[in-house]
Amino acid sequence: MQGTEHATPVYVNESGTDGPTALVVGGVHGDERPGYLAAERLRSRVPDAGTLVVLPRANQVAIERDTREGKNGDLNRQFPPGKAPETELAEEIWDFVRGTDPDVFVDLHRSVGIYRRHDASVGQAIFPAEVDDAPGVAEAVVDRLNSDAVPWYMPLHEFVRGNTITGEKPMLVHKVVGELDRPGYIVETTRFLVDTETQTKWLTEAATALLARHGVDLSNGEEAATEGGS
């Protein structure tokens, strides 16, 4: 939405070699700083093959306000599968997603508590689509994070694989799964006893590992991205 308060940058990194397209989104909820900070860390990464597209600050107004919701409520409840998005911002984002036509989609978030430990919390979990081997990929990445990223003295914060995404709820990743039938993931960390830097690092490592298993390998360094508008 160029020229409006919702305008936000998009980063497109093409490897120059044929391969899949990955789309990473952060900042759907403006008060979840690790989500958009992790996406911003990925925005200049160029894959060995294929293309990485990053929308790090999807809900610019909410980010600037440091609130979960923007001007028109919870953005991540405005993407009903099989129907038109419910707000102008949601429609703009969905048009962008469809135009990107991603082979894999990752949405980065931060919860208050820990999944299956705290009521109504979803932190420290990866939620995969019921598409292809996405559940198996999520399990493998969970194992890697718990082995390599989460310290041994923080067993409470070990990641788990969450429930599968069926494409039925009015959330962005559900719309990707339900309408595009592509592997999609929500990655959630927690602010419970964890600082922002650690949360951001975990989200960055989780996204990087998920993309690698879909053929978008970011392990060979960074380059400047091509920035577009949204």
From TrEMBL:
InterPro entries to which the protein is assigned, alphabetical: AstE_AspA_cat (IPR055438)
Classification via SUPFAM superfamilies: Zn-dependent exopeptidases
Comp. bias intervals (Basic and acidic residues): 64-74
GO molecular function: hydrolase activity, acting on ester bonds; metal ion binding
Cofactor: Zn(2+)
Chain ranges of the Succinylglutamate desuccinylase/Aspartoacylase catalytic domain: 18-110
Lineage, uppermost ranks: Archaea, Methanobacteriati, Methanobacteriota, Stenosarchaea group, Halobacteria
This protein's UniProt keywords: Hydrolase, Metal-binding, Zinc
Signal peptide: none
Renumbered residue ranges of the record's region Disordered: 64-84
UniProt keyword Ribosomal protein present: no
Record organism: Halorarum halophilum
Protein name: Succinylglutamate desuccinylase/aspartoacylase family protein
Transmembrane segments: none
One Pfam family per UniProt: AstE_AspA_cat
